[in-house]
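Input record (one chain):
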Amino acid sequence: MHILTAIISIIAVLGWGNWRKWKEYHATLLFFALGNILYNFLTANYLLWRMDADFLSNHTITELVYTFVVFPATAILYLGNYPKKRIKQILHNLQWIFIYGVWEYVFTLTGHIEYQHGWTLGWSIAVLFVMFPLLRLHTTRPLLTYILYAIVSVLLLWWFDVPVHIPMEERINYGQ
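The corresponding structure, as predicted from the sequence alone:
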C-alpha cells in the first residue's frame, strides 16, 4: 500500500504538478521533509503512529519514501494548484484534508498504520487542518511558519507525553 501511494503520487505529480514553479516551492518541500524527519527523530521508540511496512523492510524505510517521494509530490500538487480566491482556497484545503484523511482511514482498515500512546485518526485529521495551511503560509512567511510549527509541535509532544527528556534508546518501556 505504501509503494502504491508513492507510485500514485509520482503519477499525479507528473500529470498535474506545476513543475515550472518548483524553485518557488523548494524551501517548502524541505520544510515538509524536515517536519516528518523531526517527528520520527523526536518520537523515536515512542511513536504516536507507525507505518507498518508492506513491501518495504521497516517503518524507517517506509517513512523515507514518504519524506522524499510522497510529501514533496503532495506539496507540488497542493501549492502548484493553489487558487487565488478565498472560497476556492478553503475548498482546496478541504479537498486535500479529505484526500489525506480518507487515505489514512484506508490505511487503518488495511493495517498499514498503527496508532499508539493515544493518537487516533481524529488527531491525524486535526493535524491536517494545521499542516496544509502551514504549507501555504511557508511560501510567503517562512519564519512565522517555523514559529507556529514549533508551537504546535511542542504542544503535541506535551499533550501526548512524548518523553523527549529520555534518551531514545531508553524510551521503549516508558509509560508501561
